[in-house]
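Bench notes, afternoon.
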Amino acid sequence: MSLEKTLSQIKGSFSDYVLGLTEYAGEQIIHIKGQGVIDVLKTFKDAGFNFLADLTAIDNLTLGGFERFAVVYHLLSHGSAERVTIKAYVPEDNPVLPSIESLWKTADWQEREVFDLFGIEFEGHPNLTRIMNPDDYEGHPLRKDYPRLGRKERYDFPVIDRGIQKQKRTE
Protein backbone atom coordinates (compact mmCIF):
# COMPACT_ATOMS: atom_id res chain seq x y z
CA MET A 1 0.00 0.00 0.00
CA SER A 2 1.33 3.46 -0.82
CA LEU A 3 2.15 6.11 1.73
CA GLU A 4 -0.73 8.30 0.53
CA LYS A 5 -3.26 5.50 1.01
CA THR A 6 -1.85 4.63 4.42
CA LEU A 7 -1.99 8.27 5.53
CA SER A 8 -5.59 8.47 4.36
CA GLN A 9 -6.41 5.29 6.28
CA ILE A 10 -4.73 6.64 9.43
CA LYS A 11 -6.62 9.95 9.21
CA GLY A 12 -9.92 8.09 8.75
CA SER A 13 -9.51 5.22 11.20
CA PHE A 14 -7.57 6.98 13.93
CA SER A 15 -8.73 10.58 13.69
CA ASP A 16 -8.95 10.77 17.51
CA TYR A 17 -5.18 10.19 17.71
CA VAL A 18 -3.96 12.39 14.85
CA LEU A 19 -2.81 15.85 15.97
CA GLY A 20 -1.51 16.99 12.61
CA LEU A 21 0.46 16.26 9.47
CA THR A 22 3.53 18.16 8.36
CA GLU A 23 6.23 17.72 5.79
CA TYR A 24 9.95 18.34 6.01
CA ALA A 25 12.57 17.71 3.32
CA GLY A 26 9.99 15.89 1.25
CA GLU A 27 9.05 13.43 4.01
CA GLN A 28 5.69 13.17 5.74
CA ILE A 29 5.52 13.56 9.52
CA ILE A 30 2.45 12.40 11.42
CA HIS A 31 1.93 13.91 14.88
CA ILE A 32 -0.17 11.66 17.13
CA LYS A 33 -1.27 11.28 20.73
CA GLY A 34 0.88 8.71 22.49
CA GLN A 35 -1.98 6.35 23.31
CA GLY A 36 -2.46 5.68 19.58
CA VAL A 37 1.09 4.64 18.83
CA ILE A 38 0.51 0.86 18.63
CA ASP A 39 -2.52 1.16 16.32
CA VAL A 40 -0.85 3.68 14.03
CA LEU A 41 2.50 1.86 13.81
CA LYS A 42 0.82 -1.51 13.26
CA THR A 43 -1.15 0.01 10.38
CA PHE A 44 2.08 1.24 8.80
CA LYS A 45 3.78 -2.12 9.31
CA ASP A 46 0.83 -3.94 7.72
CA ALA A 47 1.04 -1.47 4.80
CA GLY A 48 4.62 -2.53 4.06
CA PHE A 49 6.68 -0.19 6.24
CA ASN A 50 8.72 -3.14 7.41
CA PHE A 51 11.81 -1.41 8.79
CA LEU A 52 12.11 0.69 11.94
CA ALA A 53 15.08 2.82 10.89
CA ASP A 54 15.28 4.78 14.13
CA LEU A 55 13.49 5.44 17.39
CA THR A 56 14.47 8.48 19.43
CA ALA A 57 12.92 11.26 21.48
CA ILE A 58 12.67 15.04 21.64
CA ASP A 59 12.36 17.22 24.72
CA ASN A 60 10.15 20.14 23.70
CA LEU A 61 10.72 21.99 26.97
CA THR A 62 11.80 25.21 25.24
CA LEU A 63 10.33 24.48 21.81
CA GLY A 64 6.63 24.32 22.54
CA GLY A 65 4.60 21.63 20.88
CA PHE A 66 1.74 19.32 21.71
CA GLU A 67 3.42 17.91 24.83
CA ARG A 68 6.84 18.15 26.46
CA PHE A 69 8.13 14.87 25.02
CA ALA A 70 7.79 13.28 21.61
CA VAL A 71 9.01 9.80 20.75
CA VAL A 72 10.01 9.77 17.10
CA TYR A 73 9.69 6.68 14.90
CA HIS A 74 11.35 6.67 11.45
CA LEU A 75 9.88 3.96 9.23
CA LEU A 76 10.97 2.72 5.83
CA SER A 77 9.22 0.55 3.28
CA HIS A 78 11.79 -1.59 1.48
CA GLY A 79 9.22 -2.41 -1.17
CA SER A 80 8.38 1.15 -2.20
CA ALA A 81 11.44 2.98 -0.80
CA GLU A 82 9.07 5.39 0.98
CA ARG A 83 9.80 6.87 4.38
CA VAL A 84 7.54 8.31 7.05
CA THR A 85 8.10 9.79 10.50
CA ILE A 86 5.64 9.37 13.36
CA LYS A 87 5.93 11.60 16.42
CA ALA A 88 4.03 10.28 19.44
CA TYR A 89 3.57 12.90 22.15
CA VAL A 90 3.58 12.12 25.87
CA PRO A 91 3.06 14.50 28.79
CA GLU A 92 5.76 15.43 31.26
CA ASP A 93 3.75 14.23 34.26
CA ASN A 94 3.26 10.73 32.79
CA PRO A 95 5.89 9.98 30.12
CA VAL A 96 4.74 6.46 29.27
CA LEU A 97 4.11 4.74 25.92
CA PRO A 98 3.45 1.13 25.03
CA SER A 99 6.50 -0.73 23.80
CA ILE A 100 6.64 -1.52 20.08
CA GLU A 101 9.26 -4.23 20.58
CA SER A 102 6.60 -6.78 19.61
CA LEU A 103 6.29 -5.08 16.17
CA TRP A 104 10.01 -4.54 15.51
CA LYS A 105 12.62 -6.36 17.59
CA THR A 106 15.08 -3.53 16.83
CA ALA A 107 13.02 -1.32 19.15
CA ASP A 108 14.43 -3.23 22.14
CA TRP A 109 17.68 -1.32 22.63
CA GLN A 110 16.33 1.90 21.14
CA GLU A 111 13.52 2.06 23.72
CA ARG A 112 16.03 1.34 26.47
CA GLU A 113 18.18 4.24 25.26
CA VAL A 114 15.21 6.64 25.26
CA PHE A 115 14.25 5.40 28.73
CA ASP A 116 17.79 5.90 30.02
CA LEU A 117 18.44 9.32 28.50
CA PHE A 118 14.96 10.91 28.56
CA GLY A 119 13.09 8.97 31.27
CA ILE A 120 10.24 7.90 28.99
CA GLU A 121 8.92 4.49 30.00
CA PHE A 122 7.74 1.80 27.58
CA GLU A 123 5.05 -0.44 29.05
CA GLY A 124 5.40 -4.08 28.11
CA HIS A 125 9.09 -3.84 27.25
CA PRO A 126 10.79 -7.17 28.11
CA ASN A 127 13.83 -5.59 29.85
CA LEU A 128 13.44 -1.85 30.40
CA THR A 129 16.72 -1.14 32.17
CA ARG A 130 19.37 1.50 31.64
CA ILE A 131 21.62 0.83 28.68
CA MET A 132 24.21 3.62 28.82
CA ASN A 133 24.34 4.86 32.41
CA PRO A 134 24.93 2.91 35.62
CA ASP A 135 21.81 1.37 37.16
CA ASP A 136 21.94 3.71 40.15
CA TYR A 137 22.40 6.86 38.04
CA GLU A 138 19.97 9.64 38.93
CA GLY A 139 18.39 11.74 36.23
CA HIS A 140 18.12 11.65 32.48
CA PRO A 141 20.96 13.48 30.70
CA LEU A 142 19.15 14.41 27.47
CA ARG A 143 16.34 16.26 29.19
CA LYS A 144 16.69 19.98 28.66
CA ASP A 145 16.38 20.70 32.38
CA TYR A 146 19.32 18.41 33.19
CA PRO A 147 22.30 20.43 34.52
CA ARG A 148 24.52 21.49 31.60
CA LEU A 149 27.69 20.52 33.43
CA GLY A 150 26.26 17.21 34.55
CA ARG A 151 26.44 15.86 38.06
CA LYS A 152 29.71 16.75 39.72
CA GLU A 153 29.27 14.99 43.05
CA ARG A 154 30.13 11.53 41.76
CA TYR A 155 33.72 10.63 40.98
CA ASP A 156 33.59 6.89 41.56
CA PHE A 157 32.52 5.68 38.12
CA PRO A 158 34.19 2.34 37.46
CA VAL A 159 37.16 2.24 35.14
CA ILE A 160 37.04 -0.85 33.00
CA ASP A 161 40.21 -2.23 31.46
CA ARG A 162 39.12 -3.36 28.01
CA GLY A 163 42.58 -4.57 27.05
CA ILE A 164 43.03 -1.90 24.41
CA GLN A 165 46.47 -0.45 24.39
CA LYS A 166 47.10 3.05 23.20
CA GLN A 167 49.66 3.25 20.50
CA LYS A 168 52.09 6.09 20.16
CA ARG A 169 51.93 8.08 16.96
CA THR A 170 55.02 7.86 14.90
CA GLU A 171 55.71 10.60 12.45
